Amino acid sequence: MNVCVVGCGYVGLVAASCFASFGMTVVCIDNSKEKIDTLQNGDIPIYEPGLKELVQKSLSNGNLSFSSDISDAGSASAIVLAVGTPPGANGEADLSYILSAVKEISSLASDNKERAIIIKSTVPVGTSQIIRDLLDDLGVEENFYVVSNPEFLREGSAIFDFLHPDRIIAGIHSPKAKTLVETLYQPLTSQNIPLLITDNTSAEIIKYASNAFLATRIAYINQISDLCEACGGNIEVVAKGMGLDHRIGQHYLQPGPGFGGSCFPKDASALLATARNYQVDLSIVESTILANNKRKLSIVQKAIDIFKNHDVKKVAILGLAFKPDTDDLRESPALYAVPALVSQGFDVKVYDPAMPSKKIPALNITTEDSLVACIKGADAALILTEWQQFKMLDLQKLADALSAKVVFDTRNIFDAMRAAHAGLAYYSLGR
Ligand code: UGA
Q1: For a substitution probing ligand 1, which of 121, 154, 159, 299 has the most ligand atoms within 8 Å of its CB?
Q2: Is 17 helix (H, G, I), strand (E, B) or coil?
Q3: Maximum separation of any 2 CA atoms in the chain, in Å
Q4: Which of 116, 248, 136 is nearest to 183 (CA)?
Q5: CB 3.0-4.6 Å disulfide test: which of 76, 299, 371, 386 passes with 257?
Q6: pLDDT confidence of residue 37
Q7: Measuring CA to CA, which residue among 255, 271, 275, 252 is closest to residue 263?
């Protein structure tokens, strides 16, 4: 099967290299000539475990190529849209990249071949209809089926998630699209991965409703964690006890400094904006967004209180990314914590394994080149991201390095008893 992926960002590169790994012939298109040059050389502009190797392998066996010219997609029967949909002024997703990509794709219609435009970008409810209307205006509606095929991969485990999804969702408006979708995903469905074929609107809602639901679980467990802390319970046991109920399950019950990233905050806001457009009450999602914003601030306040109580002056911040195995800072709790600590007069050093010795303009700070350099000379540590490297830390060495021996761990990566044995004044969440 010949596939074209439009957009060489995070989702596009993962999808293109995974389709290529199925033996399909894939061309990945991006408007940025500079990005295409970089990719053609096998260099990857983003940090994602395993992606570089997969791209290089598919480049060398000829299954994958890059281009900035849409006419190179001529032989493709499936055109996967994976361009960005950044948040607009009032929380709604900005569709301008999607619509200009569709206009470019419409130029392929001159050969009268039928193709599917497969929307993988996260797009608001109703986007498939907007695209169909645009194709109609351009006089090429007959040549394209529009498939809503949301992606559920997580940064940091994107390749694994693409190749082992819990489900594939495809929203279609034409029975002909069904055959094409089944062929495209045959390498996965043959491994018993369910393919749910539905209408376009339902598929669009499934993506947002799933992300907002997971975000709501996190906001909820964060509040239950606060309750545990206030009345002496232990959130680890509480979450485990809740999760043993199969109707609840163990996932996404880990308390933290508030969810971040490019998806949960943006998608929850976009879903809320859609509900408002349709005058539907989505106050649960609204509360999730509010609770998460408050969470990020309350965690910072807690850090300030702890450090002031211990007369801490120098703080080592461990982790900037919104989660491990990514260098993504979007909506990261660190964006609140670093400026707040600096403005309170703390002397702050930061380290993140994905961005050593790096100037971070958003924070007006340069990261340390190593974990050791970061904690050296510090009074206390604030753990913001649960990187494996931090989990492996020798607690005794950490205690020896920190003069006030204070650690505030917002990811509960250490056993509290062991931390206390090492002589640390150890603070964590909900226990
Ligand atoms: C999320 C979804 O999990 C993916 O299924 C989806 O495809 C993706 O958004 C997207 O829409 O593109 P991602 O944002 O990469 O993926 O990250 P997650 O691993 O889901 O974590 C999101 C945030 O929730 C992080 O800040 C993480 O620290 C936080 N989190 C997660 C918790 O605080 N507790 C948990 O138990 C789980």
Answers
A1: 154
A2: helix
A3: 73
A4: 116
A5: 299
A6: 93
A7: 271
In order of 3, 210, 358, the CA distances from 151 in angstroms are 16, 11, 31
Locate the ligand 1 atom nearest the alpha carbon of residue 326 and give its number: 15
Pocket test for ligand 1, best of 264, 293, 322, 411 (most atoms within 8 A of CB): 264
pLDDT at 112 over 90: no
For residue 47, pLDDT beyond 90: no
| pTM value > 0.85 | yes
Dihedral sign, CA of 102, 152, 61, 68? positive
Q: Tell me which H or E stretch contains 366.
A: strand 365-366
Three-state SS for 264? helix
Distance CA 147, CA 180 (A): 10
**Active site includes 263?**
yes
73 and 108 Cβ atoms separated by less than 8 Å = yes
Q: Rounded to whole angstroms, how far apart are CA atoms 346 and 341?
A: 6
Distance CA 32, CA 209 (A): 32
Q: Is 153 in the pocket of ligand 1 (CB under 6 A)?
A: yes
Backbone phi and psi for residue 164, each to the nearest 5 degrees, phi listed first: -130, 55
